[in-house]
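S1.2 Input.
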Amino acid sequence: MYITDRFDSGNIRVISLEEPQNIQLEIKHDNQSEFFQWFHFRFEASLEQHYRFSITNAG
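S1.3 Output.
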């Protein structure tokens, strides 16, 4: 399993990748702002597994 935001417009922080059914993510602040307005990331993993994502600060 691999998650990255290292590309133009990428914006996510990985909190936990320990369990495929409980992937914890967090939206980063917008650049030079305190707002959380968007997220964009790349996820790579096996197609033979099911995954569940939770964005913990998307309230």
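S1.4 Remarks. Strands lie at 2-4, 13-16, 23-26, 42-44, 53-55.
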